[in-house]
Amino acid sequence: MSPGNIETRLHINGEWLPGKSGRTFPVFNPTTEEKIVDVHEADEQDVDLAVQAAAAAFPAWRDLSMFERISKCLKFAELLDRDKNEIAQLEASNMGIPISSYLSCVSGAIDGIKHATGLAHDIHGETSLNTPGFVTFTLRQPFGVCAAIIPWNVPIVMWCGKVIPCVVAGNTIVLKSSEKAPLTSLKFAALAAEAGFPPGVINVLSGFGHTAGHALSSHMQIRKISFTGSTRAAKMLMEAAAKSNMKRVCVETGGKNPAVIFDDADLEKAAESVAASIKFNSGQICVSNSRIYVQRGVFTKFVDTFKPKFLDINVGDPRLESTNFGPQVDKTQFDNILRLIDEAKNEGASLISGGCRTKDKGYYIKPTIFVEVPKSANILKTEVFGPVVAIQPFDTEEEVITECNDTQYGLHGTVFTRDVSRAFRLVKAFEAGMITVNCSSETGPYDMPFGGWKESGTGRENGHMGLESYFEVKSVTLKL
């Protein structure tokens, strides 16, 4: 599918509409650095129009049987599978993810839809006869109008992970995509209409955080909002949500995720796994292991094993199946990563690989390795969101736990060891919402809660917890 052939207007109440302001914004191909299309921009008026459409659609959608809602969600998954190659080509042009990687995202999104719809069959309340003369029970009921704001790095996973649990629960939704990568979200809106979702149930807007995003977070008729993006934006969203109608908020804001390699670990497998974690999507993934802590006795051996695996990439046009390493999403992201690399060098970090662009054209950055970084260096604190890793030696278990938790974030942690007791000690000690043992963040089960501790966010998506978060709970007491 060519970007020029996709609908670029706003999808509101089952119709394609231009933005009220008449403004558009350009979308660029990060491989060629050239503009590929102009997309209609939503502002506060468009947000309100979409919310009114969602509110009008809610009663009839809520009153459909769960089986009818599930059927439409599964039809949407079927259409995703039908058009997966076109969607992969579109995303490769829009944000630079290689189709070889993106097709696995499509498969994962479809699996997530099937799992969420399967869980929907099992939504139920509780009952109690503990009070003599009364029966008490709980009901789970949908909120009404919800909102979602998704990031640019894996739109299909975020779109499906927020929209499907929301609507299968009986809610309606207004979604805003990232201005960096809006095209596939518009394609998904078209597929949702084809799948039979009634007008107003799923509304999709393209636009910016300070206008459309703020309007969503502060709208008085939106009852819940789910956001994935930066910590700074999440804090502003949470403030706006609280000041408006105290709408429910779920946010995921990234991480600075450690991988701990003990001296008894299988170094070959550990190096392979962690390298895959950081290389996926050119490091533009919130759960990548951007900090690696290696026990001192095997530090040099691990670095020597890790380096060739990390540098084993095929850089090129992400639309080609042979490419496995694409560009950063845009010039802003590209420049920021290079700035952080230069800052790390100035702070005394030892650069042993990369640190520069790989091609004259396109926003490509060579996989970058720093070793023995000063503990105060920003590269150990800041989420780079690129193919950059810091490898640090450590001596004791207690020391490495302290180092791992010395961050504002708490999204993901990894440990490699053959000692089961040690593994469980680390699992408990990590201040993070998700942990992997003897595997890395390339392993992402869709049936488990996804979310972080500390400034990595609040709330959970995926699994039972994710689906149940789209229901209000009502306690009922009946006198016998």
From TrEMBL:
Single GO term (MF): aldehyde dehydrogenase (NAD+) activity
Keyword Oxidoreductase in record: yes
Keyword Oxidoreductase included in the entry's annotation: yes
Enzyme Commission number: 1.2.1.3
Annotated catalytic residues: E252
PROSITE patterns named in the record: ALDEHYDE_DEHYDR_GLU
Enzyme category, top tier: oxidoreductase
Keywords linked to the UniProt accession: Oxidoreductase
Limits of the Aldehyde dehydrogenase domain: 16-476
Pfam families: Aldedh (PF00171)
Superkingdom: Eukaryota
InterPro entries noted in UniProt: Ald_DH/histidinol_DH, Ald_DH_C, Ald_DH_CS_GLU, Ald_DH_N, Aldehyde_DH_dom
Catalytic activity from the UniProt record: an aldehyde + NAD(+) + H2O = a carboxylate + NADH + 2 H(+)
Family membership: Belongs to the aldehyde dehydrogenase family.
PANTHER family (UniProt xref): ALDEHYDE DEHYDROGENASE-RELATED
Protein name, as recorded: aldehyde dehydrogenase (NAD(+))
